[in-house]
Specification:
two-stranded antiparallel sheet, 28% strand
Length: 239
């Protein structure tokens, strides 16, 4: 099954323009690790996002090292390191090549993430956090920009990137449930039945690539103010 998945990835039959080979390699690495992650942490006592991120980071870097990949993963990657209050994405991806790496004619050197990933739990997080995978929420009358997809759309994460990802930790229900639920909420966002500081379009919806027992993969092309970013939604079953 995994071989078939990777064959499908390599075929380039996905939404938007053809994906750069370097991005395909990183995504393939994450997919492989998420299968092992599901095996190891299903029904784990670790229920919080930061704890899961830490365990996933260790597995990702070990796999990248053993496979002799030319990249590694950095936790809490600062989007604007010149600012002490810079937002941080959960996982940055940095090249080990001295000359950097070129993605869509842009060069990313060893200190710049060329593929950033945010992680979100897919579970009953409480009514005020129900849609946190997608959008933020109001707290004491102030909007908190904590929505996973929304932060990419706003350019808080991956402002200069063409590709990014959201890791989904499925702790309740199943892949099919969350796929349907998220697209239902996006439809309401498009129709402005749910408020958001950014506009939502049909292409923001998740498009299914595969669903198997331990992992699932979806794609979306998410509009930003002046362009768009392609997001890979890579989920691991933990319940």
């Amino acid at each position: 099954m995994l071989a078939d998945i990777h064959k499908s990835i390599a075929s380039g039959k996905i939404i938007g323009p053809e994906i750069d080979a370097s991005i395909i390699t990183v995504v393939s690495c994450v997919e492989r690790v998420l299968i092992a992650f599901s095996d190891k942490y299903t029904n784990s006592e670790i229920k919080n996002e930061k704890g899961l991120n830490q365990k996933l980071l260790i597995m990702l870097n070990l796999h990248a090292l053993r496979a002799a990949h030319s990249f590694w993963f950095d936790p809490e990657y600062m989007e604007v390191p010149e600012r002490g209050d810079s937002p941080s994405v959960d996982l940055g991806t940095l090249t080990t090549h001295e000359e950097g790496i070129v993605i869509k004619s842009k060069t990313y050197f060893k200190d710049k993430s060329f593929f950033s990933m945010e992680a979100k739990r897919l579970a009953n997080l409480g009514s005020n956090r129900l849609m946190e995978y997608l959008i933020g929420r109001y707290e004491k009358g102030k909007y908190k920009n904590c929505g996973g997809v929304e932060r990419f759309k706003q350019g808080i994460h991956g402002r200069n990137l063409d590709y990014g990802a959201i890791i989904g930790y499925v702790q309740e229900n199943d892949f099919v449930y969350w796929y349907g639920q998220l697209n239902s909420w996006i439809k309401e966002l498009i129709n402005k039945k749910i408020s958001s500081p950014v506009n939502w379009l049909s292409k923001d919806k998740l498009q299914k690539k595969y669903i198997i027992s331990k992992t699932a993969k979806f794609l979306s092309v998410n509009s930003r103010r002046d362009d768009s970013i392609t997001l890979f939604h890579l989920w691991s079953r933990l319940n």
